[in-house]
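Practice problem: predict the structure.
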Amino acid sequence: MEQSNTTSPNNQAAPYVNQEHTSTGNWFLSIFLAGIPLVGLILLIVWAFSHSTPLSKRNWARAMLIWMVVALVLFTFVALVGGIGLATMEGY
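Answer:
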């Protein structure tokens, strides 16, 4: 029995996955653009959830977004602890 590469065992079409290789120049530009405030955030969101983006760049964008969330949570925690600490030092 012959099996097609485009269908899964339950006869549903497999989702499209862009397996293109990303060049060094493309990575250089991607990292540069991701470092620009607000523009980088928008681009990371687009790259993370676009099916036309190469798989390696999509995974990288998702990892960068996760790191941004971790950094935001840590920053918020440190700011709250510092603010509470400063608030308790009224008389000093």
